[in-house]
């Protein structure tokens, strides 16, 4: 069975838009409104497998191409905790391919930020590794390298200008020690000069106002922006995944045979995309893609 990739649509255009609205509420809302016809579904074959995308932008009467070519896209990819390096790399490759082949053809990502599940910022270096299910430093580097490789492909935009798919890369919740180690690994293995290093380190808003001096100094030295974010630690709790799985199976004929038992599905990755118009200084789009698959 193909994995399911769910699309929220542009949440700025929904009546649910408010700070307390959760990702699952946006997904349930858009699934309820999506037509039950095959126009709502798209099968995408990738090197990582078959993926069923629903609903499609066209079925929601939304088109990403209507936005200005000068808009800046920030894409933040959330990976769950407890997965292998190989699975994390596969998730990164799939998310980037879905972005460029289905949703934003011929469009550049200004900032692509990696968020690793279980990795929570701490200014106490001794406590920083208390989460047992996060990837090792070597694993983080391998996933980073896979993202850079996937994002370094070129395309020709509508103005006939050659661009790389991703302009800048970033990370989230990296402590001084972890960021320093990643930079060392990047620089020691760089095949080109200058090496591609993070330009952003997302830190949760609760800790962003009391950052350790060591992190501030390191970031200034190499030109990394320390930016606050308000993303919850768990974007999509398991009960919400179970609820969404039931909705999908009950509505779409193509997945009628899938299990609806609690805990039978899990989210594989979440790609949160925001689009900003710098000339008008306004946010024009806020969308998410959520990959859900059967639990192994």
Automatic annotation (TrEMBL):
It comes from the Eukaryota. InterPro entries: Gclm (IPR032963). GO terms for biological process: glutathione biosynthetic process. GO terms for cellular component: glutamate-cysteine ligase complex. GO terms for molecular function: enzyme regulator activity; glutamate-cysteine ligase catalytic subunit binding. This is Gamma-glutamylcysteine synthetase regulatory subunit. The lineage of its organism: Eukaryota, Fungi, Dikarya, Ascomycota, Saccharomycotina.
